[in-house]
């Protein structure tokens, strides 16, 4: 994506959908659920890069059970706002999940292809247990049968940016979730 300057950059931020305060409140609740569910047992938090890096950083600092973190890179969007269809694992986890309670920390479930593939892959490696937590869920866009165990927010069918989510690699650093303005050139 070519951005001509700060004015165009700002025009592309159409409206704030979820504020930083709303995210913080939801993070507290989600971390409390993890702490209660695992009740002192160690967990492996697995984040899918790049979109979930902010969510991972914020949730892991609220988790009080012993936790390790791991990263995978799965690509489904190659550029702009168009899904490319197939999911490619471009970086695998370094941990052997067979001895872990795994908690997948994802940014958004859209078509469901990415998580459906990642969950199948990790379940095939026989973890002690596996749970999926996503920050955002767009159920109206689903093309495969996949339901996350926990979704912090359900959103309508629109392309969103901020809090780790990008468009053309920009906007990941916004502290809130906003709707992207396709027309704002
Ligand atoms: P899925 O495989 O469920 O279609 O898509 C998962 C990935 O697509 C997400 O991890 C995210 O990287 C990207 N994605 C889906 N919807 C959006 C969106 O509204 N905004 C952004 N920035 N990325 C999205």
Q: What does this molecule look like?
A:
The chain is globular, with a radius of gyration of 16 Å. It has 185 residues and is an alpha/beta fold. The protein contains 4 helices and 9 strands. The strands form 2 sheets. The protein has a 6-stranded mixed sheet with strand order 4-3-2-5-6-7, sandwiched between helices. Strands 1-9-8 form a 3-stranded antiparallel sheet. It has a single domain (20-77, 84-155), classed as Rossmann fold (3-Layer(aba) Sandwich). The protein binds guanosine-5'-monophosphate (5GP). Guanosine-5'-monophosphate binds next to β3, β5, α4 and β8.
Essential attributes:
4 helices, 185 residues, binds guanosine-5'-monophosphate, six-stranded mixed sheet, Rossmann fold, alpha/beta, three-stranded antiparallel sheet, globular
Distance between the termini: 11 Å
Could you say which overall geometry the principal axes of the C-alpha atoms support?
globular
Q: In the CATH classification, which architecture applies?
A: 3-Layer(aba) Sandwich
Total E-strand runs: 9
Q: How many structural domains in the coordinates?
A: 1
Low-confidence stretches: none
Tell me the strand order in the biggest sheet. Answer: 4-3-2-5-6-7
What is the typical, i.e. mean, pLDDT? 92
What structural class results from the helix and strand content? alpha/beta
Main sheet record? 6 strands, mixed
Bound molecules: guanosine-5'-monophosphate
Order of helices and strands: HEHEHEEEHEEEE
């Amino acid at each position: 994506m070519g951005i001509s300057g700060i004015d165009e950059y700002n025009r592309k931020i159409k409206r704030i959908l979820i504020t930083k305060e709303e995210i913080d409140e939801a993070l507290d609740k989600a971390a409390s659920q993890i702490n209660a569910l695992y009740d002192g047992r160690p967990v492996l938090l697995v984040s899918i890069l790049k979109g979930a890096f902010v969510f991972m950083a914020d949730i892991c600092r609220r988790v009080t059970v012993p936790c390790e973190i791991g990263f995978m890179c799965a690509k489904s969007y190659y550029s702009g706002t168009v899904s490319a269809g197939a999911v490619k694992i471009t970086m695998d986890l370094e941990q052997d999940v067979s001895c872990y309670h795994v908690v997948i920390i994802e940014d958004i479930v859209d078509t469901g292809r990415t998580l459906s593939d990642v969950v199948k892959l990790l379940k095939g490696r026989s973890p002690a247990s596996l749970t999926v937590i996503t920050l955002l869920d767009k159920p109206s866009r689903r093309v495969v049968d996949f339901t996350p165990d926990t979704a912090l927010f359900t959103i309508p069918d629109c392309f969103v940016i901020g809090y780790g989510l990008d468009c053309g690699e920009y906007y990941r650093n916004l502290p809130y979730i906003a709707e992207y303005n396709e027309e704002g050139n």
